[in-house]
Structures are given as C-alpha cells and as structure tokens.
Write a sequence for this structure.
C-alpha cells in the first residue's frame, strides 16, 4: 500500500532566524580552525556559518586583530557585519571594516 507522499513529503525545513547554511566539510574545517586561532566562541562560529561561502572566505582571509586587542569577539562581529554589508551593497564607500585596535 503506497503511502508515499511524493513531492509533498519533501517539504522545506522551517525557516529559522539562526539557520546555519550547509557548507562543505572543508569550509566547516576552515571555520573551526579560524575559531581556534582567534579563540572565538560558538556564537561567532554559528554567525559565520550563516553567511555565504564567499563572505566566510573573505572574513577568514581578512580578519586579523592586532596583538593586545581587548575584545577579539566584538571586533570579529564588527568585521563580519562590515563584510556582509559590503556584499549587500550597503557599504559607505571608504570604510571596509577595522582590522585591529583596542
């Protein structure tokens, strides 16, 4: 007795505001190593994994806090949001996000 639902059985997963995009294992590994390098917490990792592959690659390549930075976590979120803003065309022109400071 065929109780298969066909296409109806493949309903999309419910949208979540904190949805983590599925990325291939190499990106997940790169993000994990990046988080270890800069001692970023799970919230930072989850936020980064919500972004497109290109945003992730740009953040990993460009994020470089100066030695002695007081809050690497805060700097990370500011940098991530500036990269996302630039991809969405909302950049203010000359400012591309900070790479250090206190």
């Amino acid at each position: 007795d065929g109780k298969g639902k066909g296409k109806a059985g493949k309903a999309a997963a419910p949208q979540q505001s904190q949805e983590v995009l599925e990325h291939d294992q190499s990106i997940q590994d790169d993000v994990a190593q990046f988080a270890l390098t800069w001692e970023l917490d799970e919230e930072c990792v989850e936020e980064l994994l919500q972004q497109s592959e290109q945003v992730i690659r740009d953040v990993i390549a460009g994020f470089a806090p100066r030695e002695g930075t007081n809050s690497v976590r805060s700097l990370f979120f500011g940098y991530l949001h500036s990269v996302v803003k630039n991809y969405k065309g909302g950049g203010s022109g000359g400012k591309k996000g900070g790479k250090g400071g206190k």
User: Anything to note?
Assistant: Residues 2-18, 92-102 have pLDDT under 50 and may be disordered. The longest helix spans residues 72-87. Residues 86 and 93 are 9 Å apart (CA to CA). Helices lie at 25-38, 42-49, 53-62, 72-87.
